[in-house]
Amino acid sequence: MVKSMFSSKYVACLVSSIILNALFIINIFVGGQWNLSWTSRAAAEAETVAAISCSGHGRAYLDGLVVDGNEPVCECNTCYAGSDCSQFIPDCAANADGGDPLFLEPFWMRHVASSALVEAGWHRMSYTFNDHTFISKELERIIRKLHAIVGNAVTENRFIIFGAGSTQVLNAAAYALSLENTSSSTGIVASVPYYTLYKGQAEYFSSAKFKFQGDAYTWRKKSDAITNMIEFVTSPNNPDGRLNKQILHGPNVKTIYDRAYYWPHFTPIPAPADEDLMVFTLSKLTGHAGSRFGWAVIKDENVFNRMTAHININSMGVSMDSQLRAFKLLKAVLEGEGKEIFDFAYQTMKARWERLTMALSSSKRFSLQKNNPQYCIFYNRVREFSPAYAWLKCERKDDKDCYAVLKAAKIIGRQGNKFGSEDHYVRLSLVRSHDDFNILIDRLNKLVSEEDGAKTM
Amino acid sequence: MVKSMFSSKYVACLVSSIILNALFIINIFVGGQWNLSWTSRAAAEAETVAAISCSGHGRAYLDGLVVDGNEPVCECNTCYAGSDCSQFIPDCAANADGGDPLFLEPFWMRHVASSALVEAGWHRMSYTFNDHTFISKELERIIRKLHAIVGNAVTENRFIIFGAGSTQVLNAAAYALSLENTSSSTGIVASVPYYTLYKGQAEYFSSAKFKFQGDAYTWRKKSDAITNMIEFVTSPNNPDGRLNKQILHGPNVKTIYDRAYYWPHFTPIPAPADEDLMVFTLSKLTGHAGSRFGWAVIKDENVFNRMTAHININSMGVSMDSQLRAFKLLKAVLEGEGKEIFDFAYQTMKARWERLTMALSSSKRFSLQKNNPQYCIFYNRVREFSPAYAWLKCERKDDKDCYAVLKAAKIIGRQGNKFGSEDHYVRLSLVRSHDDFNILIDRLNKLVSEEDGAKTM
């Protein structure tokens, strides 16, 4: 009896132990962690930092500031403070200025396993890839595939070049299209309202080759007489989301189509874009502005070669780390049917536009741009625009400085004059974080509620 | 007896099972893998690719070309071929052209755990850091610490700016130092032999602001009469490794010290550099040329602000991915006393110089630059130079095209004229991979052995 009890205890112990072993084995094999060796330290480090709670109003990063001890501290969103970012700062101004595309951050939080990147210390130390170019062929392949799935650009028989964000690519394009070996300078224009960078770059880098010449409309009738013109066409336009077309035509006119926002989250896609030179950026596609990764799709080989030479002398190509990141992120985008990110991003932008329209619906003081719905080949139906920015107009004659009107109501937008336009206009960014957008809507609600003096707060 | 045997078997089983339990637990806790969740897929992926054997003559990368199936294939070093890079191509030319710093790759293979980087999909999507700058403060802190440990630069009370490699930083410096709002253009000079990029950039970006004016020596006596001059001083010099000092002096002369090679692997460090504007790069420190990360140490706040403005309009700062990579790599460098990488790199360069000197010791046709030993505050002793490049001279009058002489012997160097010098000179890169260097020495040995006709092969 004693022996029997003894052996049944043994059996119970043995069974437990075997079950525990089985669990370990399942954990290890299903978790795929069996062979992890040199990556485990860095992986544990990254997971530790990712697990730091910042109350949903901030984030800790691997390379974040370290105050006490060794772990990075929370970096709080605008209007939030405290060690865990839980304190709301009541009098804080809503930031609707820059185009930081943080509205996509929640998508990457949800797809954290497919988008995580593990990079060895010895990864691609060379200046170039094995084919002596600065361009990852696999990344190029993925970009072409993505354009094909979305249907927003023709890439067959086109060259693709990479740059440090569309910023560097746009400048390379302006240099490349300016004629070489000529004493006459090329004029650079864009139709008002235009993205301020075109003017900023053309003026900063002003050379014998090119000169900024203002609004494209003012050159419409003169353009035949002018030798060389480059028109920047932003489509969808920054700030107003319109699907701009070129204003100038003729044998001496060259165009650079800035297609940064030509993705289904912001606009109907009526047809694949098929211009001579089209510029795209990761920033407004996946939301990774900080990675500084942009590309151009180019028809002409000479233009491609000149742009390549420009990027080389400017920065010797694009960071291998940015290219690897873009590769990993776009691979995650393409998992499944490759439509999930667009659905997420479109729903987010659509919901934001609904809230914004609602907030301003009773206002006579402020109006928004109108873009009529169009057929979208990506969603196979007529749909509304949901642009990255609101192009707000202060309708009252006295509100000449719309930026100041908003600023007094604790809303920071961007002045109309920065887009070559009147200061009756202000651009409000709608692509920023959930927190920034919520505060913007709160401030707008308050401003509109005070419009006729009916409500005081 | 049967029962006893039965229970002793039980005991044996139980003990084994418990030992296995213990082993699993030790593996899990000591391996630090207990909690790995979202990183494990990417970690396994990276380890799988890293484990692909390329015979030590090539490497497979995460974003490498995929031919069959899903795994990237081996990318072979110059002169090696085959699916595992095991086939030597006998007639292949030695590549001693570019400054690809692959000589440091073995260091990172040895320190693979400390240098591995795990980056979440949501890592730093914004254009800027939380302080609204493009500069990681933690990375800046690490860079200052590294300069302090090495003793190669004074960084106290200096500003630090980042750029896409020293390439972008050098151009930003030239723009920043060119006077604003003036009709007279600034001359840009460098003493022969000089790094060709200074000329290339100045000519390509030639504007109303600056113009390339050739060799600094020819302006030595004229410089007082000239309004504005910028002298690029490369110290140690590329191509010859000399610790250059500025040639021009005076109130209208500004200098940009290119300190890319001012690290203990290449040169004695006589004292901490303390110039107004010093440029460094990750490429020649850790070997990560592909990461495009450089920095400048700047005394004057106005110059710092202008350079910041330049980098912003050119590329809106530096890739967050490059900054995170630099952060991780430099943190690994600083582990322990922070001297291990310099010891490895110095020993490698020293050994290469010994082999090179030996190969050319019996030659009367070819000579190398001579740099007299100097006291090094890093190693606390007098030591030889071990520059990144050999500045080879073809001594025969007939060998006017030294590049062609070497090319005929299947050695690809870089022509003297690219450095503003005579074509009696050729630069040979000594910082490339072990394979490239071995082939170079083989080819040189053969070339020298044929010099007097004594040997034929």
- State the end-to-end CA separation of chain A: 84 Å
CATH class of the largest domain in chain A: Alpha Beta
Alpha-beta content class of chain A: alpha/beta
Strand order, main sheet of chain A: write it out: 7-13-12-11-10-8-9
Helicity of chain A, in percent?
Answer: 25-40%
Q: What is the count of helical runs of chain A?
A: 12
The radius of gyration of chain A is: 27 Å
Strand content of chain A: 15-25%
Q: Tell me the quaternary state.
A: homodimer
Q: Which CATH architecture of the largest domain in chain A would you pick?
A: 3-Layer(aba) Sandwich
Query: Major sheet of chain A, described briefly?
Result: 7 strands, mixed
- The rough form of chain A would be described as globular
Low-confidence stretches of chain A: none
CATH fold call of the largest domain in chain A: Aspartate Aminotransferase, domain 2
User: How many domains of chain A?
Assistant: 4
The total strand number of chain A stands at: 20
What's the pLDDT, averaged over the residues of chain A?
Answer: 92
CATH superfamily of the largest domain in chain A: Type I PLP-dependent aspartate aminotransferase-like (Major domain)
